[in-house]
Here is the input.
Amino acid sequence: MNVRSTFPPVAAYDPHYDPLVSEGPGQNRAYAPTYWLATAGEPPPADGPITGDVAADVAIVGSGYTGLSCAIFLAREFGIKALVLEANQVAWGCSTRNGGQAQNAAGRLSRSEWIARFGRDVALRLHAEVHDGFETFEELIRSGAIDCEPQRGGHLYIAHRMRSLEKIAAESKVLNEVFGYASRVVSREELRRDFVDEAEAIGAVHEPLGTGVHPAKLAFGYQRMARALGARIHTASPVEQIERRDGIFHLRTPGGTVRARAVGVATGAYTASGLTPHLRGRCMPILSNSIVTRPLTAAELDATGFRTTQVITDTRTLRFYYRKLPDDRVQIGSRSAITGADATHGRHLQLLIDGLHRKFPPLKGIEIDYSWWGWVDVSHDMMPRIFRPEPNTDLVYALGYGGNGVSYSAQAGRRMAQMIARRSFKGEDLPIFTSPLPGHPFAPFRRLGQRMLYRWYHLRDEAA
Here is the structure.
């Protein structure tokens, strides 16, 4: 039964929401005005807000990709029907605001950086875990129950400077020789002939795994699958506090308290500061902006040389990510504002428009139909964690994807389900499962450093 009519009134979308200063993500707020929500169709029904004290075996906080996939795997693999708590609408945060780029990655570090930090053996095993995660994601969307408009074929890493091409070519050699992952260097001529005529491109590296998806259709597909397996998804139910008393977790919401044996926290960059001490200051929320053009004409497609629908990123530290969508629009995104208070300033939109024009001069002046932004959960060491903070209790969190969570979030949800069910799995001794998200000694001053770093990154990225 569709019970959305029993919801409290939908509150207005807050464009200035900021995880570091806001009390919380709000209650029953409207979605951000993304292209994805505008083209996903009617959202599927949820189970209404919590309206009294209830009991559950497992409570999951957050209804994005991670929380929903955790509910799916708890039901499919262990027969556990979870209760999912969402402050606003299903997949209200990053899961309906991202660029839809599923890559064979997790976190922000390269494979060479894995070797330097963890050693060759651990790096090889981390690669196997991430690769398995991509297969987990593909298995879910290939099941036939989720129509998220997949655009397969790989990932293009486009170099915008010669020194950047040399760097990613060296990384491609490591991928091939150490990890057996068949990436290859693509020349400027081949790139423009066979893929895209990107004016800034010097060359590229092609990785075989990469899938573009419609983020909202993916989230709603997970939602339908989870509910069909018996999970309950309660929207308009922000968790204000998590306490453990007499071996039971008590999750307080405005409508009542949920008592649960186990808790999974999957709130990403939208984690309220008072939710649990285990996550206070553990991630740095970073804003990412996105725009989508009107559909390109046949002449415009020919002028830009778009012959690929693969996912694309460039080699800037403050990278641009972009691709051609199934309806011939171009989506492009990048980092922008530092604070939520500044998010609506027109210069952040202009940064994306300027980037689009530099990359594709024939699109100068093209109409922009959609513009939005959202927060990304970046861990302080650039690696995600799926972790149990207290060994003898069943609270597990999964966060810190750093913008590379579209595919790995499915695996993170699966691993969180296995940890909640107290089941072992291959690779469970890897550092992303055995160590907490690191804190930061200067957490109150991180944004001062972020401003300086952004200026430095821009100067370095654009230097000849």
